[in-house]
Amino acid sequence: MRTPRQAARIVVLSPSGSVFLFRENNIEVGIHWLPPGGGIDPGETPEECVRRELREETGWTDLEPQRLLCTWEHDFTHQGIPVRQHEHIYVTTGPRRDPVPESPDAHWRWLSQPALASLGEPLWPPLLAELLADAPGAPVHLGMVGGQGRTAT
After folding, report:
1. How far apart (Å, rounded) are the C-alpha atoms in residues 19 and 111?
2. How large is the average pLDDT for residues 125-151?
3. Which of 17, 22, 143, 152 lies 20 to 30 Å (CA to CA) from residue 118?
4. Per-residue pLDDT tens digits for 35-59
5. Does 152 reside within a domain?
6. What is the pTM of this model?
7. Alpha carbon 64 to chain centroid, angstroms
8. Are 44 and 116 in contact, with CB atoms under 8 Å apart?
9. Where is each Nudix hydrolase domain found (predicted)?
10. CATH number where 82 lies
């Protein structure tokens, strides 16, 4: 039995279309790239969560979620607990800049959308490159996505 967990992330696009992502490595899923974000605190909305997480992870306080890109669910282990995480993925635009203050153990990069599509390492959510390339007019609900080792193609 997996514990339900709610989370939200925010994709930051530069004026030229580059995407800000973190590169993480954990025992269960290995190396993967994902937008800033994390678990939704009790009483917090997904939009409040992405503002807080963006501030905590990058120091940026001037960006707002502009639209919901997609939702998805996936299973993984969070702090030793098997969870089924439901994520809201938002999009915003902002200047291309470094996180402040930059954490010495954070691995991040601005990636062009063509580089994102040919990254060769898993993305969370796995269809992020395709969703950004197609720019759907309404949020896409991906449902349960398995196989976290998949890379976006």
Report:
1. 5
2. 83
3. 143
4. 999 999 999 999 999 999 999 999 9
5. no
6. 0.91
7. 15
8. no
9. 3-134
10. 3.90.79.10
Contact 38, 55 (CB under 8 A): no
Q: Is the pLDDT of residue 96 over 70?
A: yes
Domain range enclosing 47: 3-144
In a domain, 151, yes or no: no
Report the domain count for the chain. Answer: 1
Nearby residues of 142 by Cβ (< 8 Å), 6 or more positions away:
70, 71, 72, 73, 125, 127
Answer whether residue 103 is part of any domain.
yes
Q: Write the DSSP assignment of the chain as a string of letters.
A: -PEEEEEEEEEEE-TT--EEEEEEEETTTEEEEE-SEEEPPTT--HHHHHHHHHHHHH---S----EEEEEEEEEEEETTEEEEEEEEEEEEE------SSPPTT--EEEE-HHHHHT--S-BSSTTHHHHHHH--SS-EEEEE---TT----
Q: Which residues, in sequence order, are bridge partners of residue 10? A: 90
Q: Is residue 64 part of a domain?
A: yes
**Per-residue confidence band for 102, with pLDDT thresholds at 50, 70 and 90:** low
Handedness of CA 96, 101, 105, 106 (dihedral sign): negative
